[in-house]
Amino acid sequence: MHFFPRSGWLFGATCAALLGASGVAQAAADGVVFVHGTGDQSVSSATTGYWTQSSIDTMRSGRPYLIVGYPGASCAGFSQCSWGSIVDQIVPWMNANNITSFTVITHSNGSSPLRYMLGHTGAVSAKGHAVSTVTSRISQVIFSAPDLTGTPLADQVTTSGSFLNIANSVVEFFGGGSYNNPAVVQQRTDNMRVYNSNGTFAGAQGATTVGGKPISVVRGNRVYANIFSSDAYCGGYMYTIGLKAAALLGWGSFNASTDGFIGSDSSGYFGNIIIDDARLNHHQSRRSCHNSGTLIGKKVASVSIPPPSQQTYTPETNVQAAALACNNYAAAYATDFMTGNTVWKYGCSSTQLNNGYVEPDCLISYGYSSSYRIPSTASWNPFLNPAYYPTWSEVCPDSWQGDGICDACLISKYGFDATTGSTGANDCVQSPPGGSNWCADLAWDTYYGFHNYAVVQALH
Fold first, then answer.
1. What's the pLDDT tens digit per position in 269-279?
2. Residues 285-299: what's their mean pLDDT?
3. Is 459 helix (H, G, I), strand (E, B) or coil?
4. What is the pTM assigned to this prediction?
């Protein structure tokens, strides 16, 4: 149950979720504490909006748990209003549930207040609780997507003074409201260099323990955004494609070694890396995607897990084509808004999918057509054939990325269509019911009598 006589994160310990608390004496127990990253979260919002109950249950391995809510944007990780609020929630939870030891699981910048606590055990919270009261019972710490040396995205937004080049879906990771809040400023790479060197945050480069506590690290090292893949949709495709664009903004490449928000150099600064996954982005690491939650649960239960190089995953599946933004699977007449002509959309039937030929809309709807698979820049790719662009002066340039039209040709080359900018990551995110997407695809122009790259409107 949740126990908080007054609502809101401003009231410290009253924001804690106390599970298993009762007036009856309880047997000693091992627990799990969840600490969210940047953002002013209440217990309720941290539970339902940040972690989600299903992800929490996967990771806690049946143990009693506490969801912390604290001002993770308004307060930097070294500020008492950050770590102190966490301490003031953990102490009554420990006492009410007779918790003798517990695992701490953090996400993103939630690592910072924990690092401060592990390095300053003599500090005292606003309610008079010594940090050592909490740290003495920590058995292990699991940092998920930790920001240990800062992120260039914090450098970007605090220097430019705006979120204009950050995808809307990613702004949440900066606390949502202000680009220059204390937690974001703290995460600048230049500031983190200072905090790591002067003892503000505990943890030396390459260390596997901090303050005597074993540290495990869960991280992604790429953003996998293939629009037809189930792996890209875990947690929501909007987040995935937004983080893909963020990788370009922060690291200069869609293929940089980053989860889209934290670079591998930052997440791997210290700790024992137990998950190092090319299909686990920054958002997905808090949602137990790609088996990460199950592996974390085993770590919580002290069950051995294979090293990252030996971990196996459930094979990705194709997203139902009807869930995609452009209805490419459906054969139909439509209006090409570039020429005004009526075009025939080829679609992809079950027969077409494996007929031995390259069917353009099968490629886009399912990621393959017979034995041909995308993304690919091979000569067989029909979307790269100049003959199919008779009314265009260029053939699928990268400048079409993030221009408001979901381009099938870009999906065929890269698996996604996105670029930096507040709306540039939304081209191929399906509009809600009653809405529509602008989509470009190969089609048969019934007026000219040839194949052409047409821009049509997909209704949902």
1. 999 999 999 99
2. 98
3. strand
4. 0.92
